[in-house]
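User: I'm writing a short methods note and want a consistent example. For Glyoxalase/bleomycin resistance/dioxygenase family protein, I'll paste the sequence; you return only the structure tokens, no commentary, since I'll be parsing the reply automatically.
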Amino acid sequence: MSNALANVRKPHLSLNVRDIDAAVGFYRALFGTAPVKHYHDETTVHSVLQDDTGVDSRQRRTGYAKFDLDAPALNFVLNEMPGTRFESCGTLSHLGLQVDSTDDVIAMRERVAAAGLATREEMSVDCCYARQDKFWVADPDGNEWEVFTVLEHLTPEALREKATRSACDTGCATSAAPARAEAACCGA
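Assistant:
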């Protein structure tokens, strides 16, 4: 039997935090390195499109940071959830596995689905300041797992430009367009 996880690049852990800057300070000291992404804006949302009841669960992020560690290999993300949002969501956002390619995402999704687990696919979505192919699966306790590959890294400026361009293409450009920069996805 081949190792089904052979193509996993890194495990992924996403935490909800009250204050992004305080959390970044703590983890910068703990890991001994700066985050590779650290933003304070609302140009990204969490990509779980709907919860198990079918309700849209996307929420704008006000702060986001990503540590991309080699030793230990870990894709570690912080999502700012101020005030009551933090209290209602708790500290664990989601878990995941970063793989090398879209083919790896598809192969793992097919294997998981063949094992009888329900998956939710998201291909070519803008999420977490990146364009990604992924799928989601929840464990028996409701912990969300995402299996994903990063196709392209995106900046807040690129997301705002993309949202404006999209709004212009559809003929419905409004001042709210930048706030919908990632309405198709993503927080994860």
